[in-house]
Amino acid sequence: MPLKDLPPDARPREKLLARGPGALGDAELLALLLRTGMAGKGVLQLAQELLDTFGGIAGLLHATADDLKRVKGLGGPAKRAELVAVIELARRALAQQLRERQVFENPEAVQHYLRLHLGARGHEVFAVLFLDSQHRLVAMEELFRGTLNQASVYPREVVVRALHHQAAAVVLAHNHPSGSPRPSQADRDLTRTLQATLALVDVRVLDHVIVAAGDSLSMASEGLM
Asked: What's the order of all strands across the beta sheet hosting 169-175?
């Protein structure tokens, strides 16, 4: 159904202005960005199809312009560019928060940031947040991909990158694409190995966050390191 055929109080724009953005569902907010649908498909239907295709908002935040191009109804470059711009702004807003304050003043923000980056990946990724002496974010790097274990994550490379960024501390992170965020024994062994290796250059491992679809776990908060 076209938005103009909805009752005024059910139209996303009017609903947002009258009741605030929290009153809108994900598809309604996305429809505001898309503005129009296509022949035979209203904008709300197109928005819901996008969410279903990418696994919700978290998955959509990982979509590239090429990913969006494959969705019928998003063939035009203008819509794709606007969506990609909004997605990138969301990532940068979170990164800015972590750069401006100590990351452990708000550990939930750290996990949310990592879920945005890693939660929808279809393959395993090992990333490191490099922090300064006041535990503010300096950089995040994805260092390894594929099946992750002690043999495929090279401590020497993590040390090299930590020294490059002059990091005083790091937060380790990786994802479990098809499982829960509970750490395996291999995850615990890898964490201990990296703690010992980085300690040799006076870099502390503050946490190891494991991300799964829509969920995450802090090994530090769980008392596992």
From this structure: 137-145, 125-131, 169-175, 204-212, 215-218
pTM (predicted TM-score): 0.65
Domain boundaries, the chain: 3-93, 105-218
At residue 142, φ and ψ (nearest 5 deg) are -90, 115
Return the CA Rg of the chain: 20
**Interacting residues of 185 by C-beta distance below 8 A, sequence separation 6+:** none
- Encode pLDDT of 98-138 as tens digits: 666 655 566 777 888 888 778 767 788 999 999 999 888 89
Other CB atoms within a 10 A radius of the CB of residue 176 amount to 21
> For the domain 105-218, what is the CATH code?
3.40.140.10
Q: Which CATH code for domain 3-93?
A: 1.10.150
16-42 burial by CB neighbour count: b if 16+ within 10 A, else e?
beeeeeeebeebbebbbebeebeeeeb
Query: Would you say 127 and 141 are in contact if contact means Cβ atoms under 8 Å apart?
Result: yes
